[in-house]
Amino acid sequence: MKIGSYEAKAKMPELLVFAKVFIIGIMGAEIFRIAFYLGKAAKPLFSCSAYWCDEASLIFITSIICCLYAHKRNAGLTIELLAQSRRIDLFTILIIGVYSNFFLEPLLSNVHKLVQQSNPLIGPIILITILVMFLSSIWRVYSMEMQETNQVPKQFRFLEDEAIDCQDQDELSGNDQAVAFAKTVLESANAHSGLVFGIDAPWGVGKTSFINLAQKYWESKAKGELIIFRFEPLRYASELDLSQYFIKELA
Hints:
Blueprint: E1 2-3, E2 6-7, H1 15-41, H2 51-72, H3 75-85, H4 88-104, H5 109-116, H6 122-150, H7 175-191, H8 207-221, H9 242-250
Antiparallel strand pairs: 1-2
Helix pairs in contact: 1-4, 2-6, 7-8
């Protein structure tokens, strides 16, 4: 099929995806079948007179716990995304996998017989274990939410991406390091001549702010003894001879 000038081509089938969905269908049906057999084996544990009441209560409690767990796992969002994807092919493969479980029943007949003849307590024990794991996860989530609710809300501030000029604007505590650098330059300049200092750091980490803080220190401690000359090479990035402009501005 051609769309404008583009010719759409059929893609290779997603074999691994289809295989996983197919296996999920088979395993899901088998789990449901075994759960049914375990529940049927546990039927004698309930009293005959109030069996319907006990069964309804158990189903209700189990459903509530499963729904809470699914809610905390964002199952609703997952189902919504699956529905929006409109992958009817995957849903069809899932149904085929569920239906294929019936063909596997003769191969698993011995296993099914063992499950049906198992101890009546096995089913309730497995159910209680699963519910306890679900409740544990739900409780951890609620505990974290309660802790976040009780905490004092943090006040977030955004810092401007501009160089600072004084210590009052120093939100990142870089003034001490800048002052230490400025002191080193002054002491070295008095002892030796012709020394060159460099500041090497990646772009955007605050080199200009660092120099501004150091300059404030020089202006306050060595006023009249030190010549501070700021030369910005980026202003002359398009020029070939930077030394000419350096000498011109210095003069």
